[in-house]
Amino acid sequence: MAILVDHNTRVICQGMTGWAGTHYSAAMMEYGTNVVGGVRLGKGGSHHLNLPVFDTVAEAITVTGANASMIFVPPPTAADAMIEAIEAEMPLVVALTERVPVQDMLRVRDCLKGSRTVLVGPNSQGILAPGLCKIGVMATGSERKGEIGVISRSASLTSEVTAQLSRAGLGQSTTVGIGGDAIHGLSMRDCFELFLRDPDTGGVVVIGEIGGAEEQELAEFVAETRPDIPVVALVVGRHAPAERRMGHAGAFQKGVGDAQSKIDALAAAGAIIASSPHLVGETMRKALQLKAA
């Protein structure tokens, strides 16, 4: 079983007719994802990748029965695309666009309040349920179906950790890139709660980095609930200079945003800390062995 997506997920792509939307929609279809159409204002009634294109998300939902949207829209208009999908009551929206203006994301956050939409991203690498559904830009080939959930803020480390888990004989239930921008939808804690409710997830890997306080918020939840599945955490950026943005908008440490405070909080909550990026898979394998003993 997976979280957020399954074999019944029907995906549209907002921005499908651009280069990125075309490339990644085609890759998703090749993987087996049920992509049912695209949205591009002014191109409604046309076809792209042999799929119908609609002027609005609402129209796409009505005609195709879509229950998920992937957003490949440039930063200046990405928030409007998210809001359109939320107002159309799209159940799942995965926003790949990075560097969406913070002020725009405040509008999106307000729109999400009381809505039925789960927003993943922006600046998400996507969602991957091996053998079931891929939404986004995640590399495939090394993933395997199994019981380990992965929550990540880092695209490159997600690929590395997925490969490590598979080499260790541990498949994945779902891998979720929650997004690296400062303001985004689904949080680490939200995602972890979904995994706890999934009977087929037997362990969770958390990949964190500098910036924000999501890792500390997750640590508080883990300390409160004391889950009976192992939680392995990797937090990168221990040697990053203070008060300097590293890469994307979310990777900025000030106060609680430094890596060591996140590591300390997760360790105190009972998570098992992987001491190096190349040890995550082996750390989870040993944790599962210890639990089974």
Automatic annotation (TrEMBL):
Does the keyword Membrane feature in the UniProt annotation? no
Checking InterPro entries in the record gives: Cit_synth/succinyl-CoA_lig_AS, CoA-bd, CoA_lig_alpha, NAD(P)-bd_dom_sf, SUCC_ACL_C, Succinyl-CoA_synth-like
Per UniProt, residues of the CoA-binding domain are 4-100
An example Gene Ontology biological process: tricarboxylic acid cycle
Q: Which GO terms describe its cellular component?
A: succinate-CoA ligase complex (ADP-forming)
One Pfam family cited in the UniProt record for this chain = CoA_binding
The UniProt entry annotates the active site at H248
Q: Keywords, A to Z?
A: Ligase, Nucleotide-binding, Tricarboxylic acid cycle
Q: Which domain of life is it from?
A: Bacteria
Show the GO MF annotations.
nucleotide binding; succinate-CoA ligase (ADP-forming) activity; succinate-CoA ligase (GDP-forming) activity
Q: Which family does it belong to?
A: Belongs to the succinate/malate CoA ligase alpha subunit family.
Protein name as annotated: Succinyl-CoA synthetase alpha subunit
Please give the organism.
Pseudaminobacter salicylatoxidans
